[in-house]
Each structure stands twice: as C-alpha cells, then as structure tokens.
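#structure-requests
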Amino acid sequence: MKLMIKELSFSYGSCPVLQGLTLEVGEGEIAGIVGPNGSGKSTLLRCLARVLKPRQGVIFLDGKKAAGMSPGELARKLGYVPQAAAEAFPFTVLETVLMGRKPYLKWGVTKRDLEVVGQALKYMGIEDLAERYLDQLSGGQRQKVLLARALAQEPEVLLLDEPTSSLDIKHQLEVLELVKHRVQREKSTVVMVMHDLNLAARFSDQIIILKDGCIFAAGRPKTVLNTENIAIVYGVEAVVADGEFGPYVFPVRPVTGRLSLPAGAC
C-alpha cells in the first residue's frame, strides 16, 4: 500500500511543529525518519496514525483520503507502535496482543483471531511470555509485545516510533530484521522513527531527515546521510564511510560556529 502526505502541518496551540510536509512511501518500502530532538518525528507519526489531527494537509492510503475512512477501516490498514508501553498495564501478554484483533471482532474471539495472535507471538519470539503480565516484563519485552499487537492487526502500513529504543544490540537487529522480512514477504509499508543513523541507514529504503518541523532532505541513505547534512541538521562533525550495509556514520565532535543552510532548505 502506498502512503502519501501532501502539505501536512501541525501545531500545538500557536506553536508550529510540522510545516508543509510532502512525501511518499511506496508499497514494500521502509522509510526511516531521522532528525534531532524536537524536529517533529514522533508528531509526524502520530498524525499519520490519526492520533493527532493535522492543522492542514492530506494523508492518502493508496490514493484514498485517510480522513474519510472509518476508525475500523483505518485500524485494518494502519498499525501504530508508540515509543514505549505503559509501566503498569493490567493485562497479560496474550490479552494485549489479542487487542490487535479488535478491528476484526464482531461477536467474539474466533479461531482465526487466536491463530493470528499465536503467529504474532511466535514471530516476535515471545510465546513463552503469553501468560505474563506486562508490568512483569522488561522495557524491551514490552516493546516486543506492542510490536506483536500491531502485527496481529495485519496492517498494510506499519508505523513504528523508535522500535529499538528499549532493546539491546542483539534484539535491535533481531526486531529490525523481522520488520524487513515482513515488508519483503507481505509487500507492506513501514514508516519508522529512528535515532540511530546507522540502523536507519541499514534497514531503510529511504531516509527522511526532519529539521525544525520540515523535510530537510529525503532520498536513499547513501544520498542524504553525508557530512554536510549531518553537520547542518545535528550540529556534529562526522565521518561517513561506505560499508557493506550502506553508509556508516562516525560522530567526531560538535560543530563550532554557525553553518549556513543550502539554498531551498528549511
């Protein structure tokens, strides 16, 4: 499913956060959204998930306006995983993942629902946690539960807000490999907010760099993750090397002095 937004803007009160964003993510593609703190990454994802209502602009799913879809229809198309699970959530892992089937439930839980939930638990490698309560789990385990819940929705578009933030190195790679495998298998679409530029470069088909609420640069990782862009957007001198899995960013030191923006940049 193709995701497209046109001239999307959002403000908290009189404070603008997103300013006229236009972008497109194709079917079977992973888009990594990166940028410094406060650049609007999570706000953009929450607008795409319809958790927040944009001040202006249009979101399209395969050419159809998301605003015109019913909540149930949208939930069957979009799966959203926020940054972190609640610390104390009075449900078991199985119950939590089963909530992902809500858009499909009518009179009760069916055999199909239980099969999908079981597959999601197995896919995320957390079958052994099914009867545990969320408040008994580590942050990384809770994050996997939320991912499993989103997979149980069987969405065509998956929105992930820092999906590896609570995970150790092994599980970061494991989760992102699973996401990539699902995209390749299902031809689904993923938009994920990332802080780690190297993981973003490795697992994304395109990188979208946000700065001050607008798109500073967008394109293939090798094209947009360069020393100039990193210096201007992050205020950091960096060495960018070509690696087996794409560009690799080595931060060196904070930039001293002011850098001028290239013509046409936000």
